[in-house]
Amino acid sequence: MTTTSLRSLVAPPPRDASPIVRWVLSDAPPETSDAELMQRVADEDRDALAEVYRRFGPLVHTIAVRSVGSHHDAEDVTQQVFVALWRARHSLDPAAGSLAGWLATVTRRRCADHHAQRSRRERDERALSVPSEVATGAQPEDATERVVLARELDALGEPRRTIIRMAVVEDRRQQDIAEALDLPLGTVKSHIRRGLLDLRTRLEEVKA
Amino acid sequence: MTRPPTRHEEDVVHTEHLADERLVDLTLDDDALAHEREHLASCAACRGTLADLTRVVDIAREAPTVELVTPGPGLWARIVEDLDGSDVGERIPPRDAAPASLQPEARPDVAVLPAPAESSSSPEVVVPLRREHRDREHPVGRVRPALTWLAAACAAGILLGAGGVVVADRLQSGSGAGIDVIRTVATAELDTLDTRQRLGTATVSERAGELNLAVSATELDRGDSGYVEVWLINRDGKRMVSVGVLDEGATAGAFPVSRQLLDEGYVVVDLSREQFDDKPQHSGDSIVRGLLRTPV
């Protein structure tokens, strides 16, 4: 009964499909791009907002949970973020950055507001000599960048996701990956290059 | 090659910026060639990009420790309510019959998740049939008994795979027998993750339209001062929801669950060791786990 990575054990891929077949299948569905979705929200499409929530709710909520601690407070933050997205819809510009970047930045700021309010409240309570049980003194965790990249990695299509994981997380050499996956070295290289440069762009969009 | 062109044509060989793609190679695998090293030593821009990429790799390396947490099932309804409250006059009428505030409290599962995109490009293969069915024919907020849901799901053969047929048969044979009958919808064997030791079972049963998840185990090592939390993990391995916490010292418990959760693919039961540490997300320390299947 040891600690085991969740990812490794949930939903193992079907045994009968070869990796290549799985990749082809999972690459197949051309869903609405994030940029397209952003444009639709900008054009007042509430259904698009629902789809944004479906797609990015876990990103926003996970950042919030890690920062503010309680699920309840995190849901308040998540709610504020999606309401803010709708209110800001007219200023959304897909050319200026991604939905993920926008949402992560706003979430991070809302979490900071939350902490500021909480410490003001605690200070006031102390001033009034009301005993405070909340003051833990713990520094809130800012996992924004980690969560953003985790979500980006998850959202990658195959085989790029597998290749990036092997290169970055498992720290395997490109030649090694090419052999393990039976792919040309050039293919592996270009997935890694494009993939990491995209991740860098995403990270740059997350503002303080 | 998105780097800006060099400023001076004459010293092209040694001062030409390194391509971003090449900098990726240097970040991960390759040793810099002599002239590349020379350039890096004198070029802050390329060093900056290299530092950025190294940071990307460092952060991405920790990504597997991040479990994405899905917001609770009632949150979308609250957001809609918030928008409707603040947007009056600038919005087209609500697309669904009941405003969020009128949705039945006790059944947050019926009303909550946003409809999938209407886009015709949405992939039929991966979007469960029932989703469209639900949203088109059963307006948000209308309560549907579980039997209808089960029958619909089973007719479409999508509840928990091919085994759904079994449940459909049972429903037919049991029709008219009154609604207050407990039916087993799905069961899971709970095994340890490493040694696959069978430590317990989980059962989803349906009674009077409500689904209940019961778990029981022969032994649960909850550590020194922790507690055991019950989760439903999505098939996709990325999303999970907390179902509840076992009572102190207990090795069994029962929790109401929403059928929509199961329908959305939250079919892996997981019991985790948690500490009283203000971290509501899954500790990553799973004791046992099992996949819900319809009974054979």
UniProtKB/TrEMBL annotation, chain B:
Residues 87-106 are annotated as: Disordered. The keyword Transmembrane helix applies. Keywords: Membrane, Transmembrane, Transmembrane helix. The chain crosses the membrane at residues 146-168. It comes from the Bacteria. This is Anti-sigma factor. It comes from Knoellia locipacati.
